[in-house]
From TrEMBL:
<protein>
    <recommendedName>
        <fullName>Flagellar motor switch protein FliG</fullName>
    </recommendedName>
</protein>
<dbReference type="GO" id="GO:0006935">
    <property type="term" value="P:chemotaxis"/>
</dbReference>
<feature type="domain" description="Flagellar motor switch protein FliG C-terminal">
    <location>
        <begin position="223"/>
        <end position="327"/>
    </location>
</feature>
<keyword id="KW-0975">Bacterial flagellum</keyword>
<dbReference type="GO" id="GO:0009425">
    <property type="term" value="C:bacterial-type flagellum basal body"/>
</dbReference>
<dbReference type="GO" id="GO:0071973">
    <property type="term" value="P:bacterial-type flagellum-dependent cell motility"/>
</dbReference>
<dbReference type="InterPro" id="IPR028263">
    <property type="entry name" value="FliG_N"/>
</dbReference>
<keyword id="KW-0966">Cell projection</keyword>
<keyword id="KW-0145">Chemotaxis</keyword>
<dbReference type="InterPro" id="IPR000090">
    <property type="entry name" value="Flg_Motor_Flig"/>
</dbReference>
<dbReference type="InterPro" id="IPR032779">
    <property type="entry name" value="FliG_M"/>
</dbReference>
<dbReference type="Pfam" id="PF01706">
    <property type="entry name" value="FliG_C"/>
</dbReference>
<dbReference type="InterPro" id="IPR011002">
    <property type="entry name" value="FliG_a-hlx"/>
</dbReference>
<dbReference type="GO" id="GO:0005886">
    <property type="term" value="C:plasma membrane"/>
</dbReference>
<keyword id="KW-0283">Flagellar rotation</keyword>
<keyword id="KW-0969">Cilium</keyword>
<feature type="domain" description="Flagellar motor switch protein FliG N-terminal">
    <location>
        <begin position="4"/>
        <end position="106"/>
    </location>
</feature>
Length: 331
């Protein structure tokens, strides 16, 4: 805490938080450290020299440190698979692993199911009673549950969700039987992936067409339009996606980003891949980047759909330039 810059960083981080969260973060500090930070906060407030850009940078740095800490957590699976062998030898280690798994599964029959991929789960649950599907989805993390639900047909999805509302009435014996059956099916589909969806197929076609001469590309797109207008629209949109931004030439990107609303850009960049974020920032003016950082520091965490819509709005000028034949990509 003797490092003044360190104290200033902490104070600037706290300035971007609400009072309750800031209080929670400071609970583990001793009184001298709290006093030091409080004095720094008071000086920042009195000087009226808050720097939103710097506060946003510090918040990102803090987030990066937290992510590294999570990545360095004790790896139980690695311990069971490697460390035990070194300590006990392969034979005894296998015996201990089996005992651990048996005890764990008795306490939590869904433990192996949670580690399955979304594709494996969808394939294993295909054709199963909605009650079975509901029991499994009720044990998954929210994100994975949403992914599996999105792959179910509409009728199965409705029936499954209705049954998820009454999972508290399911006995432990029934949960064990369902988990056992699903585990058997998962073993059959280990490593399997779902068939390619329509969007993936059209994306491959879009990538092929986008590499053709502008005139020939438009002729072929026109042929698709004669057969299916909806597919034609999807193909044109999939010629340029958010993930393609790093491959866009700087001049083209600069021209297309010029009129994008800074608020929308802030939402679009929420949890964006680093290469995409860096490409966008590198092709914005210094003033625009400052405005963007200020917007990011002030905005609330956006909903997933808001991020999707914002990214689509950012990409739209690129799609229009591509359709006009003026979009350039890196060589």
């Amino acid at each position: 805490m003797a490092n003044v810059n360190g104290v200033r960083k902490i104070a600037m981080l706290l300035l971007g938080l609400d009072a309750v969260t800031a209080t929670e973060l400071m609970k583990g500090l001793n009184p001298e450290e709290v006093q030091e930070i409080a004095m720094e906060l008071a000086q920042l407030d009195a000087s009226d020299q808050r720097d939103p850009k710097e506060e946003a940078r510090i918040a990102r740095e803090f987030h990066g440190v937290l992510q590294k800490k999570v990545a360095q957590r004790f790896n139980v699976k690695k311990f069971l698979n490697e460390a035990l062998v070194n300590i006990l030898g392969s034979g005894k280690a296998e015996e201990v692993r089996n005992q651990v798994m048996a005890v764990t599964q008795r306490k939590d029959p869904f433990i192996n199911i949670r580690s399955a991929t979304t594709d494996e789960l969808v394939l294993a649950l295909e054709g199963q009673h909605p009650q079975t599907t509901a029991a499994v989805l009720g044990e998954l993390a929210p994100n994975k549950c949403q992914e599996v639900l999105s792959h179910l047909d509409e009728q199965t999805r409705r029936q499954t969700v209705r049954r998820m509302a009454t999972l508290d009435q399911m006995t432990m014996d029934m949960k064990h039987r369902i988990a056992g059956m699903v585990n058997e099916r998962l073993n059959k589909f280990k490593g399997e992936v779902l068939p390619e969806g329509r969007e993936q197929t059209l994306r491959r076609l879009a990538v092929v067409l986008s590499g053709l001469d502008h005139k020939l590309r438009d002729e072929l797109v026109g042929e698709i339009n004669k057969e299916d207008e909806e597919s034609c629209t999807m193909v044109k949109n999939l010629m340029v996606t958010w993930e393609d931004i790093p491959s866009i030439a700087d001049r083209s990107l600069q021209e297309c980003l010029r009129n994008v609303d800074v608020g929308k850009m802030a939402v679009a960049l929420f949890e964006a891949d680093e290469d995409i974020a860096q490409k966008i920032r590198a092709n914005m003016s210094g003033r625009a980047v400052s405005m963007l950082d200020e917007e990011i520091s002030l905005m609330q965490e956006p909903m997933e759909q808001e991020v999707i819509e914002a990214r689509d709005e950012v990409v739209q000028p690129l799609r229009e330039a591509n359709e006009e034949g003026t979009l350039r990509k890196e060589k």
